[in-house]
Design a protein that fits this description.
Elements lengths: L5 H11 L4 H21 L4 H28 L5 H8 L14 H15 L8 H13 L1
Helix pairs in contact: 1-2, 1-3, 2-3, 3-5, 3-6
């Protein structure tokens, strides 16, 4: 596999951010593979530095997309619903719509990539902040 051309092939797409999320994640996978290759075979190279920079940019874009999706699609939980929950038993079905299916799929894709190849878990605080603010509203 030729890693020397990865930056030329994916740099602009990574800098532009996730339009097509699945394609964006494929670009980032290429960046991770190239970064790992250069880290093991050409430490201190400009190529490694470029891959590290692209990786950081990609992670920032994914975190921004994660935050944006949550903010746009999270809704406050009504006080009456919270009060009703207190009187329910464990067997009762809770009719709470969390997020639209497509949004949930995208959040899941982003989460899996950030935790897996991204080796980055700080985005979880974004989830906590936004979702907990919906309970406070």
């Amino acid at each position: 596999i030729d890693y020397d051309h990865v930056a030329d092939e994916v740099e602009q797409a990574v800098r532009d951010g996730p339009g097509d999320l699945e394609m964006y994640l494929k670009h980032l996978d290429r960046v991770v593979n190239a970064r790992d290759f250069f880290a093991h075979n050409n430490e201190g190279s400009i190529e490694l530095s470029t891959m590290i920079d692209l990786f950081k940019i990609g992670v920032e874009h994914l975190c921004r997309e994660f935050r944006s999706l949550l903010k746009r699609h999270s809704r406050p939980v009504p006080v009456q619903f919270m009060m009703d929950l207190a009187s329910m038993t464990a067997e009762d079905e809770v009719p709470l719509e969390h997020l639209p299916e497509r949004v949930l799929e995208n959040l899941s894709l982003i989460s899996r990539w950030l935790v897996g190849p991204g080796d980055y878990t700080k985005f979880l605080s974004i989830y906590f902040q936004i979702r907990s603010s919906q309970l406070d509203s």
